[in-house]
């Protein structure tokens, strides 16, 4: 035991001697060189609860916070002066002439609170009167002139026949898969932004139209040119090619605000009444039974091309007063829209929508329209005789 105690005493004495020597040496160096470390090397005081950060460890990233439509912070208010038209959810399936009789929800703007300098009336966001309180938003006649002037400025010199054919061949389905689908809602407001995103990388975009909006292809072409300021340079069936224009600049394009959610459709008057005007209750019931027992004029495919439907119904009315269209497999709101379009375009009177069938009546004093609605499957846009052909086709439409 005595030997161990002697060894430990000797080790402790040597250790104390070394520490005193090193501390005195360090003090001499500090006194002679007066070295002070920079502030960047001094460790920052840490919180007591936070874990210690290693010298080579990166600071943790802040947690991801998804954007909320109820939080307007961080979003700039979009100015819509460059877009001289009323903002609607659908430009082809909603009409400014038809006035609704009520709303299904309060007037919450689908663009989000405080993100647009227009007020939402429940149907649209009018471009002229921001204090409008009625459901019907009347359009300023000067807006059409503004749209026309802006479109002419963007389009510039018209395309020649060779330039048009080169663009059409470039955007064929066999050469590119990039296209925009136009479905049952027609030309929606957010599609304007999608089309402009395609125009960033190409001069034109191919649009494939399907479903109920194809019953009125003339309206689709008109609304596309009116709202996007482009030009339809090709149409074959439900396929369109929309040209952006010679003077189109993607960096200076108009900012289209996006709708964050789909607004509820307002309440419109009933399309089918209990008794048809001019008939009694028994005559109306008998007509509905006869209409459902008739052979179907045609059966519509889901998401098909329906431009042939209006001339078929007009031809059928020359020999029969009732026409039945088989809509089996379609959604109820789709064949309701079909009946509404037939009422306005043929014209005729919807009788019933029972059993996924559309039955229409031509009326007592039916007179076939003088101008036919035989829309050609393919249109000519050439400069040689294009102006004459387009004018004749628009009259035929």
From TrEMBL:
<dbReference type="GO" id="GO:0006397">
    <property type="term" value="P:mRNA processing"/>
</dbReference>
<keyword id="KW-0809">Transit peptide</keyword>
<keyword id="KW-0507">mRNA processing</keyword>
<feature type="region of interest" description="Disordered">
    <location>
        <begin position="36"/>
        <end position="77"/>
    </location>
</feature>
<dbReference type="GO" id="GO:1990904">
    <property type="term" value="C:ribonucleoprotein complex"/>
</dbReference>
<dbReference type="Pfam" id="PF01985">
    <property type="entry name" value="CRS1_YhbY"/>
</dbReference>
<dbReference type="InterPro" id="IPR001890">
    <property type="entry name" value="RNA-binding_CRM"/>
</dbReference>
<dbReference type="GO" id="GO:0003723">
    <property type="term" value="F:RNA binding"/>
</dbReference>
<dbReference type="InterPro" id="IPR035920">
    <property type="entry name" value="YhbY-like_sf"/>
</dbReference>
<keyword id="KW-0677">Repeat</keyword>
<feature type="compositionally biased region" description="Polar residues">
    <location>
        <begin position="37"/>
        <end position="49"/>
    </location>
</feature>
<keyword id="KW-0687">Ribonucleoprotein</keyword>
<keyword id="KW-0694">RNA-binding</keyword>
<dbReference type="InterPro" id="IPR044599">
    <property type="entry name" value="CAF1P_plant"/>
</dbReference>
<keyword id="KW-0508">mRNA splicing</keyword>
<dbReference type="GO" id="GO:0000373">
    <property type="term" value="P:Group II intron splicing"/>
</dbReference>
<protein>
    <recommendedName>
        <fullName>CRM domain-containing protein</fullName>
    </recommendedName>
</protein>
<feature type="domain" description="CRM">
    <location>
        <begin position="277"/>
        <end position="373"/>
    </location>
</feature>
<feature type="domain" description="CRM">
    <location>
        <begin position="157"/>
        <end position="255"/>
    </location>
</feature>
<feature type="region of interest" description="Disordered">
    <location>
        <begin position="377"/>
        <end position="397"/>
    </location>
</feature>
